[in-house]
Batch of 3 targets.
Target 1
Amino acid sequence: MPSVLLVGLVLLINLFLYGAEGPLVGFRNAYIATHLYYGVMILAGRFSTRVGQYSVFALTTIANLVYVVLNPNQFEFVIVALIYPFVALSIVRTIWRLKIERQKTNDQLADIDSVNTNLAKQIHSLSTLFDISQTTSMQSKPSTGNLNILLDEITQVLAEKVGIHRLTLRIWTDNRLSEQVLATVGLTPSEIRRGEINNIEQICQHVLDNNEPVAILHKAGKICPLPDSWQSEIAAALNKDQVAAWCLPIRINQNPIGTLTFDKAAEQFSVEEDLRILTIVSSIMAQRVEIQQMFNSVVEAERMAALGKMATTIAHEVRNPLGGIRGAAQLLELELTHSSDTQSYLNIILKEVDRLNRVVGELLVFGRPYESNFQQIDLRQMVIKTLELCKTDLEKFNIEVIELFQPNLPMVELDQDRIQQVILNLCRNAIESMSGEGQLILHLNTANSREQIELRLEDTGKGIDEEIIPYLFDPFFTTKLKGTGIGLALSHQIMTEHGGQIRVDVTKTDGAAFIMTLPIKQNQTNGVQ
């Protein structure tokens, strides 16, 4: 468009030139036209394209030459017309070079602005990470519930620095969710509910299985995987408006043990900046979780050692007097005549002494160093024989036993006496829980691609309060009037010695269900205590 306007201007100048009344006037007008052509060329150099500039240059040069041809006697103007192309071309080139220099200067200024902006963002990111590191280092001594406090403080920093107001830590143990911590800053209960993701457990499982972060999209919980090898390319192509949250793995020695779910940061931060900050935050949290787990392991080991020593001492101190009490009661029982009341009292003494002896036996097992005695055992037959030991109580309380056993189960390498003790303890607990009519349901089947075998014991009793589930396997914790709190703790210890686990099914609402999982083949390290 500027070139068209300038061509029109040249034509107007020529109409003015050839419309003069006489040659002398036309001659003077030719000088004026030439000077106007210089102005036109300056305008072309400033506003027109390279093609437009040369088009206007060619048109004005031709106009001057036409006037020279029509007026050959005007020697002075011939000189002016011959000089014009060189001066005009010099003007155009000078202006073009100035425009190029100006563009280079603008580009350099834009680069400097971009560098300054990136530098400011990096400084902001470093400041955020520094504050998080300071928060982590201030929590130098791990303790129970420390992760909750740490997560709250990290969320506070992220909310202030990058606009992330929600953070959820999930830790998995043996392929099941063992701990979940939610931290929010400045969100109302309704905002927290609106931000919940329906299929978050499946998303977290994908992150754990593939050991890669994902973007959780607004579209019906869809995800966009972000493999480490080409994370930056996907991040550059991903529209942040599509993203609802991020889910990153928590890695210890490159193995995922949990996930961190973040809301996306404020809009002024790019996808790549979000991921850079959150990846480092997840690494910091991974280190903290590892430290916490090591601390918990050391504390647990020291506590169990102290309890074992105390249990052994108590058992030895109690067993000798119990032997004397039982012997005295048996001697009294051998006397010729007893009244019915006396005999009743003697029976109570003998029964209670036997109960205390069983407790002492459990204490000795709990505190004694374990020596493995693994053998290939048919677990199905062992469960059936264990149920025979409970037959009297089962019939007494009219409890129905339902056996749901998978056929063709493999032989399992285990210590028969120890595992039978666990099963017997769970069966007795179930019978006490029902204390009347009910059902004891046993499921026995393989799990984890036939590498493990799982025994599930369900009852229809009064169930277990959700508040006490975390403490069930703690030594000496009990809710029974005559309980010792050793049975489940000892069961947990035995299962750990076998490289297995025992847990409560927290999803069961009517009655209680315990799940025992054992490896079919033992590792060499199992059983070494």
Note: The domain at 140-291 is CATH 3.30.450.40 (Beta-Lactamase).
Target 2
Amino acid sequence: MSLYPLVPLLACIICAVVAMGIFALDGRRPENRLAALMLLGPAIWSFCEVMWAVQDDAESAMFWMKMSSLGWAWLAPVALHFFLDLMAVPAPKLRRALPVLYGLSLLTVVVDIATPWFHLETVKTSWGWAYTLGPALPIFYAFSIMCIGSAARIVWVSLRRSGATAEYVQARWVSIALIVPLVVVSIGDALLPYLGIQIPRVGTLSSALLGIVILWTFQRYGYALLAPGSYMSEILETLPDGVAMVHLDGRLRSANGALLRLLAARPEQIAGLRLTDHLSEPIHPTDQPLERQCDLRTLTGDHTPVAISSTLLRGRLGAPIGLVVVIRDLNEVEALRDRLLLSGRLAAVGELAAGIAHEINNPLAYVRSNIVLLRQHWLTMGDRLDKAGIRSQSESLLVEGEELIEESIEGVDRAAAIVRDVRGLAHGGKRKRTDADLNDLLEGVLRIVAPQLRGRIEVETDFRDVPYVYGAPQELQQIFLNLILNASQAIDERGTMKISTEHTGDMVVVHVEDDGCGIGPEIRDRIFDPFFTTKVVGEGTGLGLGIAYGIVKNHGGDIIVESEPGRGTRFSVHLPAVTDTLDAF
């Protein structure tokens, strides 16, 4: 007995196994069903070839030869249909032609079975049975070339537009896997038999090359161009949220990389892990996803705030087979929420400070008025003692008392100035713009922050004559207050802060410089981001520099940062000068 039937048998097994594997990936996707059919056709064809090779009589061999049309007659339109769906090409004319092409394939099967137009007669050979082809072969061959040529054009045009290198490489191998069987079948199974030359048929084995290419691309790239359902695992791995398939009893079946990172686990550690044991709330199996917040305990014992949602996973018969759980990390959301609450409290404190400043201002006015009146009485008393000739006996007391009164008035005036500055800074009304003197604004800010700097930071000022700046004084004060406070916080114990103004071109520049810890280059580009802070929650909102940056930009200016870790930082605020005042400089 000839060993030749083992050749189509091998082709049948390869094509059938790969076809079932592709369908098992996701049989609901049209592309997967069509890819499986492209391999199922050669499997049927090679099975029929095995059967006619082992027959004892010509009539039985001819029967299986004609039955083989069930495998090869519709391969060309299926290939065209597959690539239209895979590449998502509209091609309305080709799509409208698909039913006609499938109809022609069915007609081919009927004609082959009912007439000798394709398989004319059988020929006995040393390896089994062969055949001679009838007059319909050239027509069918042209039909197949048209379909496969259209499919090849769709693939190459689509891949050139996509620019996907990995898919382009796969497409070359897929093209080889399609062209080689086409050439081998055209010569060995069609042209030579049509000319009356009989050789062993290897067309079906060459068709198995397509299945081998699919298996190889799976192994090489982790996915196959002809099995798009396999992209699902790659998609899950790119998601920022944790996604897990869970048994109904809470044990993990599989998890994506984001969930492994949330659990601080390695892939081998999740086998048999009960996800429900690591959540502060139970997972409720429902058909509709419902998101709720809870804590996730990692394998290292840490707790992370998360939002979880779960959905029942049902099999094809509708019975529950597990849960799909999505877990979203809320660390950043919680930190943002805390900072928003803190900024809200600070805003309330600002309003309260404005109210307190208003209430303090009236008593200060009374105190100053009374002290001024007391000074007048004190001077009058000194004059009367002088006229009485007894001033010399109390001269030291009179001078000392006058100095105390002057110092008290000066102290009240300083307190009133601070209250006035605080009221101006915390006032919640409309920010009206006017010509502003930056030197005056800086002096007001320094009076406000003086209690925080006194005894710890030496402040050096160099206020030069500069043009006015058109802007909202309260907002401009906010800029300098935030920068000065930021500089004071950068100085650990004792240090120096330098504040200066200068006029450069059509800009007024304010420099705030400290000799503190400096800013590292890795975070320098982020210091103006809202809510970015290197302090722990509760000690800073991360809003100060962001607010300052926004105000400067709103005034048509810019902030330049120069810093060196361990040496200090220099913020330079550039604001456009008022045009009318530039001529004086």
Note: Residues 22 and 575 are 66 Å apart (CA to CA).
Target 3
Amino acid sequence: MFAGLIVTARGYAVARQRRIRREMLFILISLLFTFLLIGSGGVWGRWMVGEGWGFGLFYAAWGIIPVSLGYAVIKRRAPNAGAVMRWVLINSILFLIMALLWIGLYYGLLRMLFPARRKREAVAFLMVLLVGTIMPAIRAKVREFVDRTFYKESYDYSRTLTRFTRALTSIIDYDKLVDLLVSRVCETMRISRGALLLNSPRDPGTLRIVSVRGVSGMRELTFSASGPLAIELVRRGEPVSIEEVERLYKWGAISQEEMEKVIRFDAEFFVPIFSKGKLMGILLLGPKVSGAAYSHEDSVLLSALADQAAITIENIRLYSERAEQDRIRRELENARRIQMGILPDEDPQSDVIEISSFFKPAAEVGGDYYDFVRFSRDRIGIAIGDVSGHGLDAGLLVSMAKSCLFTTTRQSQKISDVMEAMNEMVCQVKVRLFMTFAFSMIDAQKHLLSISSAGHPFPYHLSAATGELTTVEEGMYPLGVRRDISYPIYEFRLGPGDLLIYFSDGIIEAVDERGEQLGFERFEQIIKRSAGGHARSVRDRILSEFDAFRGGAPIVDDVTLIVVRYI
């Protein structure tokens, strides 16, 4: 029964702060007073009433009270005088209620109903069990009565923060939540300063201040989510006081850098915020305006608040992520509609040329582009290109390419002018993108195909007379790589029934269900097997074999195919 006194005396001896030493001294005095009061009551009961069995409870209380107070000293490190007085008051009332119940029932009612001592003690044992079952409810009522009567301020902010904790679930605005969390805690508990540090999905390893109150110039304050202080908070899983942090620093468990940040903020209480078992933030609280220390009840209350705040913050982040994903999805859908609107509505036809095109977009906005320019009845220009990457930037460059092609071909019919203008346009784009591009012109009167390419695959030429499949394998830089570059122009003679097959790399790089690419060789075989008939029939046969090769594998890049038949 002397354990509580010994532990408290040790706490008084090692305490460095003057306030803590005063509170420890008060605890010692309270322990001695309670020790003497309850002990004297037990001795008086035995001498005056004469039944030692019943008043053995008094002797048990005699030893339990200092031991439990000693446990409180160890658990809370430095309880304050107010917490001890509250504890003493609550348990004194409980002790009085127990004593009155025992004296009234055992020495009053039970003596009249059961004169025999053995029967009375047996019934008394059952009565003790009954009282034990209802004691938690009685204790809760006594605690509420004491708090409401003698500790009204603490009782009020406890109720206020409890209601605020329940109301957190209705807040969906992130900035409002973090500001309201810090301000409500500081105002309700009358804390001089406070700050909320949280990680972010983009930088989960750093805790940054997202809201601060009562102090300026602290916005740049950060703590590592894997630093010594964070590790200690995770290990303990509960709020930590400044006294404990100082002790950890003395033992080398807290780094000097983090301790300097703690001193700079003048933090006295550290409330960890966990999400799915991981530390997502810390609520730093400064000293109370009253100068009182943080109690165990404060720790329990703030822990509950932190748990609910973590759930709400996580929900808001998930909601924001989903909202951002929906916004991006809508933007991509709009960009996809724009891209589809840029592409030709129909394929141009003439008495000597058949054209059949196909375009299938991938899941994201891609960079495939093709277009037709009719210079005259017998002269048609064909443009095909592919912007590096996907997304809105690629879609924007495609729209710029169409505009540039339209403007240039209205001023000049030279392939070299088109290539130069397109290259200059891509070079001027601030976003670092490249574009493969090929522009060709079919002159039916001269039976001639003229073409120039900037890194885009040349079309295949299948001769109807010989059945030979040829192409140009000359490689050049894509558009946007260099300004001072000229692209050579190649010419092919065309005969009746010849085919020209334009394509994008979405066809060549397509994979089957085993992950094997289609490749150039397979594509060339498909072209040869698909020859014969009108341009549309050839296109459909090529696409049918292409889909058969892919099987159930998804398309990862835009697919563009243009089949031209020279009649």
Note: The chain has a mean pLDDT of 80.
